[in-house]
């Protein structure tokens, strides 16, 4: 074999090897690359949409709150001599002017009882106002009320008390229990 044959043989081997690389590189033609990019963008968009949907649910609420009572409170009423039972919170002149509403969770122990719950704020200036929540449920339910619904309070800068009251004329049964949890003010 002479030099020319050796060069031709080497060139043939080199050209065959480089053409195999091009064949391997064309496993994903440009159309497949575009499809993969579209799928990635679609998956990203779908994940952003799902996050936005779940972000608005209660599980991921962005509500700014000040928790007043983190523990479960129990109003155990027995209207034999009493006319009402109250669970009271001393707010110690707390400034609630930056907040917009009250939220809490409540449930009753007796499934058949029909109970209305009175919620009352008292300011340091002796202003009082109440809101009634009718038909407290047997399962935990979240209740919310805006401060504007407490009509007789004009200044929220110094709040004295928050009371949850069960009155004899707002229940069907004369005995029972109401649980209150997660009492908080919201912005």
SSE topology:
Layout: H1 3-25, H2 30-55, E1 65-69, E2 73-78, E3 84-94, E4 101-108, E5 117-123, E6 128-133, E7 141-146, E8 159-167, E9 175-186
Antiparallel strand pairs: 1-9, 2-9, 3-8, 4-7, 4-9, 5-6, 5-8
Q: What is this structure, in a nutshell?
A:
By secondary structure, the protein is α+β, with helices and mostly antiparallel strands. It has helices at 3-25, 30-55, and strands at residues 65-69, 73-78, 84-94, 101-108, 117-123, 128-133, 141-146, 159-167, 175-186. The protein is built from 2 helices and 9 strands.
Explain this structure:
The protein is an alpha+beta fold. It has two domains: 3-60; 65-186, Sandwich (Jelly Rolls), CATH 2.60.120.260. Helices cover 26% and strands 37% of the residues. The protein has two helices and nine strands; from the N terminus they run ααβββββββββ. It has helices spanning 3-25, 30-55; strands at residues 65-69, 73-78, 84-94, 101-108, 117-123, 128-133, 141-146, 159-167, 175-186. The strands form two sheets. Strands 1, 2, 4, 7 and 9 form a five-stranded antiparallel β-sheet that branches. The protein has a four-stranded antiparallel β-sheet with strand order 3-8-5-6, with no helix packed on it. The radius of gyration is 35 Å and the shape is elongated. Mean pLDDT is 82; it is low at 57-61.
What features would you highlight for this structure?
187 residues, alpha+beta, Jelly Rolls, 5-stranded antiparallel sheet, 4-stranded antiparallel sheet
Reported by name, the CATH topology of the largest domain is: Jelly Rolls
Order of helices and strands: HHEEEEEEEEE
How many DSSP H or I helices?
2
Shape: elongated
Strand count: 9
User: What is the fourth-level CATH superfamily of the largest domain?
Assistant: Galactose-binding domain-like
Tell me the radius of gyration. 35 Å
């Amino acid at each position: 074999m002479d030099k020319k044959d050796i060069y031709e043989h080497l060139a043939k081997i080199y050209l065959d090897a480089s053409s195999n690389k091009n064949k391997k590189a064309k496993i994903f033609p440009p159309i497949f690359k575009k499809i993969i990019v579209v799928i990635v963008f679609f998956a990203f968009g779908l994940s952003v949409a799902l996050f936005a949907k779940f972000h608005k649910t209660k599980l991921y609420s962005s509500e700014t709150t000040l928790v007043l009572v983190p523990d479960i409170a129990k109003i155990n009423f027995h209207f034999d001599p009493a006319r009402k039972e109250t669970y009271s919170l001393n707010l110690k002149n707390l400034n609630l002017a930056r907040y917009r509403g009250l939220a809490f969770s409540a449930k009753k122990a007796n499934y058949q009882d029909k109970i209305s719950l009175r919620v009352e704020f008292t300011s340091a200036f002796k202003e009082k106002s109440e809101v009634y929540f009718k038909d407290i449920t047997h399962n935990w339910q979240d209740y919310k009320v805006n401060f504007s619904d407490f009509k007789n309070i004009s200044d929220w800068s110094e709040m004295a008390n928050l009371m949850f009251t069960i009155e004899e004329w707002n229940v069907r049964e004369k005995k029972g229990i109401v649980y209150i949890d997660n009492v908080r003010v919201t912005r």
